[in-house]
Write a structure and sequence with these properties.
Pfam families: DEAD, Helicase_C
Shape: elongated
Bound molecules: adenosine-5'-triphosphate
Radius of gyration: 23 Å
Largest sheet: 8 strands, mixed
CATH topology of the largest domain: Rossmann fold
Catalytic activity: ATP + H2O = ADP + phosphate + H(+)
Strand order of the largest sheet: 1-8-2-7-6-3-5-4
Number of strands: 15
GO molecular function, one term: RNA helicase activity
Protein name: RNA helicase
Keywords: ATP-binding, Cytoplasm, Helicase, Hydrolase, Nucleotide-binding, Nucleus, RNA-binding
CATH superfamily of the largest domain: P-loop containing nucleotide triphosphate hydrolases
CATH class of the largest domain: Alpha Beta
Distance between the termini: 34 Å
Length: 484
């Protein structure tokens, strides 16, 4: 995925046609830019939110996009794959290398240039089927970060004929930012495919009446794609050979998107290859998937990665109030050298208070919270990933999907609770499961202030069957020892 928000922002300034992304020195959200479109969209429900304390102002699309920005690499997924074929006699192919897929040499070069040495689990299972002839429809589910985008991008680029000057591949994404991300991956992967042109069908991009697109791949949001296809007739949807619907689980959170996607799909030629990707396979996603991907799709489901707390040393510190917690935090930061850390607070108010206190103490702190617009949050994530800030203070917004390699310490300034104030073990796992990945050891420190939070801690300890040791915030030697 793109690591450069600046690139994404500048793309909005370009006209329809080939992606011609100008490099930008850093995040420079444009006031009034196209990302502003999101403010008008309905707010999504985050299962991580609680009414008066948490982030409630974000759509699923925004969350998905921010998680992508926080992720720096492929999530390792377990091998448990379920493949449902309508034709039980079909062999289940699997490839262990990109060479085995017999890609066009220029495409293979693009894949290697992106640093992909071998296909991921979902890619190794899906790609042989995706690239087989005759083309076959597919519904594929696997958790975020397992390589789905690369899988369908590769499919589109494998099937495109650069000699033909009209759109042949159409990819729908639920939001502007997600569409731009896919555009970025497609651009990178196709960089050796001379003449290949990509158009972004997002609200900021206009087509003139009567204009005929000569680009080969269109990536966009359903509403704009519909306008281009039906209102402006800027391309002939019947000539599309590969249709991809990405992030179906996010897409269905908006009825309008569902309807638009379905209308577009119905206008496709019957022999167009239709693909749907989703990070989850709840019943509502599957029923939408079956509606929008008819005609015997192959269904691939990859079991969710199970995170483990094995490599993470967990501690708790008893404090009497917020100020006391801050003091404990200061002791920790003075006693151990921390690469990068994330601190989770229950409320925006606490998060802002803490950010101010820590900044006053000379720490380089980023504050990520829901009241900021998406451009600001993207820019904060980029700065943190680039190491410009060592501490990221946040509420639950970023608990999931964080995979910033340098994060060695996670602090629960407040323990995670559900909406009805019960211990939230799942969020705890997502928060601290982000350090200590890939065999590295991580450190999680929990602040406990009072009976309720002590009960929460005990509950979490019991739930995971792993001891959370007590730490004395005034014993600097002990704090020093836990870091070694
Ligand atoms: N075969 C591969 N080898 C190494 N890295 C890969 C490979 N495939 C994808 N990646 C990288 O892993 C990360 C996640 O991949 P990708 O974005 O395709 O996942 P995804 O399943 O589409 O995630 P989401 O559901 O959030 O869209 C990206 O940074 C991508 O560049």
């Amino acid at each position: 995925m793109s690591e450069d928000w600046g690139d994404l922002i500048t793309q909005q300034e370009k006209g329809v046609g080939a992606l011609n992304i100008k490099k930008d020195d850093g995040p420079s959200p444009q006031p009034g830019g196209a990302a502003q479109e999101f403010k008008d969209q309905p707010e999504g429900e985050s299962s991580e939110s609680t009414e008066d304390t948490e982030e409630t102002g974000q759509s699923k699309g925004e969350i998905s996009f921010l998680q992508k920005l926080l992720r720096t690499r492929l999530v390792q997924a377990k091998a448990d794959i379920e493949v449902l074929r309508k034709d039980p006699t079909s062999p289940l192919y699997s490839v262990k290398s990109f060479e085995a897929l017999h890609l066009k040499p220029e495409l293979l070069k693009g894949v290697y240039d992106m640093g992909f040495n071998a296909p991921s689990k979902i890619q190794e299972t899906a790609l042989p089927t995706l690239l087989a002839d005759p083309p076959c429809n597919m519904i594929a589910q696997s958790q975020s970060g397992t390589g789905k985008t690369a899988a369908f991008t590769l499919t589109m680029l494998s099937r495109v004929d650069v000699a033909l000057d009209y759109p042949q591949c159409l990819c729908l994404a639920p939001t502007y930012e997600l569409a731009l991300q896919i555009g970025e991956v497609t651009r990178e992967m196709s960089k050796h495919m001379t003449g290949l042109q990509i158009s972004l069908a997002v609200r900021a991009q206009k087509v003139a009446r009567g204009e005929q697109l000569a680009s080969h791949v269109i990536i966009g949001t359903p509403g704009t794609v519909m306008d281009w296809a039906f209102k402006f007739k800027a391309f002939d949807i019947k000539k599309v050979r590969v249709f991809v619907l990405d992030e179906a689980d996010v897409m269905i959170s908006q009825q309008g998107h569902q309807d638009q996607s379905t209308r577009l799909q119905r206008a496709l030629s019957p022999d167009c290859q239709m693909l749907l990707f989703s990070a989850t396979y709840d019943a509502d996603v599957m029923s939408f998937a079956e509606k929008v991907i008819p005609r015997d799709p192959v269904v691939i489901k990859l079991r969710r990665e199970e995170e483990s707390l094995e490599n993470i040393r967990q501690y708790y510190i008893e404090c009497s109030n917020q100020q006391d917690k801050f003091q404990a935090l200061s002791n920790i930061y003075s006693a151990i050298s921390i690469g990068q850390s994330m601190i989770f607070c229950a409320t925006r108010k606490t998060a802002s208070w803490l950010a101010e206190k820590m900044t006053g103490d000379g720490h380089a702190v980023g504050l990520l919270s829901g009241e900021l617009d998406i451009e600001m949050r993207a820019s904060i994530i980029k700065r943190f990933r680039d190491g410009k800030e060592k501490v990221l203070i946040t509420t639950n917004v970023s608990a999931r999907g964080i995979d910033v390699e340098q994060v060695t310490v996670v602090v629960n300034f407040d323990l995670p609770m559900t909406r009805d104030l019960q211990p939230d073990c799942e969020t705890y796992l997502h928060r601290i499961g982000r350090t200590g990945r890939f065999g590295k050891s991580g450190l999680a420190i929990n602040f406990v202030d009072g009976k309720r939070s002590m009960n929460t801690l005990k509950y979490i300890e019991k739930h995971f069957g792993r001891k959370i040791n007590k730490l004395d915030a005034d014993d600097l030697d002990a704090i020093e020892r836990i870091s070694s």
